[in-house]
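Q: Structure for this?
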Amino acid sequence: MRYVLGRLGSTIPTLLLIALASFVLVRVIPGDPVHVMFGDIPNPEAAQQMRERLGLDKPLIVQAQIYLRDLIKGEIGVSIRTRRPVLAEIGTVFPYTLALAVAASILSVLIAVPVGVYAALRRGRFGDMLTMALAVLGRAMPNFWLGILLLLVFSLGLGWFPAIGSGDWSDPGSVLQALVLPAIALAVAEAAFLARITRSGLLDVLPEDYILTARAKGLGRSAVLYGHALRNALIPLVTVVGLSFGRLVTGAVVVEVVFSRPGLGTLLVSAIDNRDYALIQGAILVFAVLLVVTNLLTDFAYGFIDPRIRRG
Amino acid sequence: MIRLATQDMQELDPAFMGVVGSWWVGHQIYSGLVRSDSGRSGPEDVHPDLAERWDVSDDGLTYTFYLRQGAQFHKGYGEVTANDVKFSYERIMDPEVASNYAGLFEPIDEIEVVDDYTVVFHMKRPYPAFLGSVLTYRPGYIISQKAFEEKGQEAFALDPIGSGPFVFESWTPNTEVVLSANDDYYFGPPAFSGVRMRVIQDESAVAIGIENGEIMAANLTTPEALGVLENNPDVTLHCVGSIAARYIWLNMKATPTDDVRVRRALWHATSTELLSEGVFDGWHQPLDTILPPSVWSHTDDVTKYEYDPEKARELLAEAGYADGFDISILYSQRPQDNGIAIALQDMWSEIGVNVELIGLDHPVYTEERQQNRDAYDIIMTHFGRDTDPNNFVQEVFHTSQFPPGSNASYYDELDDLIEAGASEPDLEAREAIYVELQKKIQEDVPGIPLVHTTACYAVRNEIAGFEPPVHTGFAVYPLSFKE
């Protein structure tokens, strides 16, 4: 318990530092949100009024103080462009990104474990070499490129899936349908990586004495594999899946834009285009919280599976 | 439900709407005293909307509008009356409000409400562009005074109440805008139960959406997207010369472009044919006059500068730059502007002009253009107003618009003609003024027109009734599903 609390406590300064860094970074990018809002019809008085209303006329250090003070109170500001609270803006699109990342995460494990086991059992043979070569290819393929490829074949060519958007929540079937291609685009590279981890994890375990013992007891091949070998081989996979979930959330940024899906990614890209400072900071903070939380959960899960870590 | 693709909106307060996405939504939910379906602003293009008819006094100083009775605001906000008209326009004129559009209403002296259905505008001076290019334009929308006062400015901007054919329902930023049919619309209910406007940033994605039917109509500008749909039997491309074009503006107050021979030389060294073909696959047309042909009073009877590098070299030598010079171009780092800049660099290298390319991310470019204009020799813009020439020449060539305004050339010899054209009530005399003005610009070369933007709309064949307007965004109301 003390371990859990200690880990939780150490995340707060991390998040505050990230918040401050993002505050500085967005203001270092040249470009002015007020100019973006008014387009090519400049009206100096209107621009000045807007700047005052948004508090952008204050010195940077004062703005930073206000930002951090509000943050500690749990307020992360109001979007410059939409005038709505940043949390509400993120809240409307976050479920789409979460759904995409979870789907891609599940999909990558579902692909990786059987492929990894298959390769390990055929170590050094043609099947192993072929699957591992494919894994290298999958890992090397950029997700946006794969996304465009999937769009062209399955959406435009065969018409099986929509090319745009995320379906309609009132029709859950359409949401799932719209999730398939982006989830595959996002999952392939992770699956390739996880398959290699599974393979090497299993290869490490297979020569162990307890596997030999299990065999000697007369257990069947699949009982040894699933009951003894795989259980132990998957421990490293848990950590990696946890870390890869963070990668999937950030990777969604690009995939969402390719599939014109709403989500944190498209939100962040347009916030940057519009120099919507509050929204950029908010989105970065949410990414940071997600990464920190998945890392924490991974640590806890690891400790749960392997008690030596908790004690050590 | 009709499904369209658009850019994202911002706010919908007619006093501030500043981006294409907002204009497009505004077009469906608001109505004005008069309207122009084609987007043109000539006298024959202006039709009755909330005003059934109107009179203009002979001296051009008094406009009387007679409102139709029974036109209703959305969501139960009551009938549209002369008071709403007065309220909507006085708000834009109010210096406290600081509207982007205040300048367009400056010639109005007073707005007088005679009764619920009669409103009179008293002008300080004749203002012939008033009907066509102010009242049919974005600030001409009438809002509900009651709704505005009840909600306040900020809330109204995101939950607007107009009296147009569609009612604003919801906006999910970066995702979509949803409108529903206004069944009480005074011209009759629309053919669609609503409009779903999907926000899609990439035009190639829009093209794919149109191909597989997820999107039914959209405005497209990139040759890549247009090329995808060109031969699709289910889709019709409606293309029309728009009111916008790409230009470069030359600094007339700094060397070497303060010399008219240098400016003319640069024009002679520019092949607009090549820009049209090379950068736009011929979708957008070469332009050889500053005002595009879609603008009223446009004339071709002006000095022209055909592509002739030899002549350009002679002019440069005459001006004392036989060995050329270095020059910088500021432009927005968008793919097509980038292509133009690189092509110019290549073409001008032939006459010894060495171009430094300064392409910046759009928001940074805008800021630099307005705040730091003198740091660059040449500014590239994509610019257009309406088909009445007044707004264009006022914004681009009047001395009151020196940077941070749009007069990036520091052109200072046109104020008299601009002001004369703005207030000449007689149509023929007014046309003569603009012809003279065009001849003068073409002699002085404050800038070089490059490519005339073609407005293309891809519309799936199940949609009937589409007529392409000259500016971005079309009215959904005249459309229907084919039987």
